[in-house]
């Protein structure tokens, strides 16, 4: 008898429903490398006489629109960077559960959409910097992906993350004028959109793989 194909619904066979990255070592290296990059940029900003933070997002000013690309790499001092370090490391690592290539796509969606949101609604004349918008996006992505993927393991991880970092959710609301709730809010919304988009792509690919007339169990 020829080997029988493994059913698509068998636990552990669907990459979209993974909880941890398929290659944890590579994912850890990528997450650490991104974090190190943030520290290198901050060190350069401290050493150089130029104020790199002015390259952030200048709200509703065309000259500041390119800040969408640079703002997540810039921080308003070491304290700001320290506060983002652990969330960036943990969320970036877990968000690679579908592979590094998928993580790059998810991160690009969050990076660009959250930045555009800040540019549109942040107070005029303000410059926004920091990786917290991207971190909020990764967190939101991790919180809702299990619902879109119908994955119990991912939902369990989301509950754990929510229990540990529930305090971050207050950052979605207006409060401290020196904290960009706009970046946090649009980061979170972008993360939800990324999770929904990736789930749609995965379902479309699954339908194509199954093909018309095939029986999926």
Automatic annotation (TrEMBL):
Any one GO molecular-function label of the UniProt entry: serine-type endopeptidase activity
Coiled-coil blocks: none
Where does it reside?
A: Membrane
**InterPro entries in the cross-refs:** Peptidase_S54_rhomboid_dom (IPR022764), Rhomboid-like_sf (IPR035952)
Q: Which GO terms describe its biological process?
A: proteolysis
What keywords is this UniProt entry annotated with?
Answer: Hydrolase, Membrane, Protease, Transmembrane, Transmembrane helix
Give the membrane topology: Multi-pass membrane protein
List, for all copies, the residue spans of the domain called Peptidase S54 rhomboid: 70-199
One Pfam family this chain carries?
Rhomboid
| Record keyword rRNA processing present | no
Task: Output the Gene Ontology cellular-component terms.
Answer: membrane
Asked if Acetylation is a keyword of the record, the answer is no
Q: Which domain of life is it from?
A: Bacteria
Quote the Gene3D superfamilies the UniProt record gives. Answer: Rhomboid-like
Taking the first listed entry, what is the main subcellular location of this protein, grouped into a coarse class?
membrane
Q: Which PANTHER family match?
A: RHOMBOID PROTEIN 2, RHOMBOID-RELATED PROTEIN
The record's family statement is: Belongs to the peptidase S54 family.
Record protein name field: Peptidase S54 rhomboid domain-containing protein
Q: Which organism is it from?
A: Amycolatopsis decaplanina DSM 44594
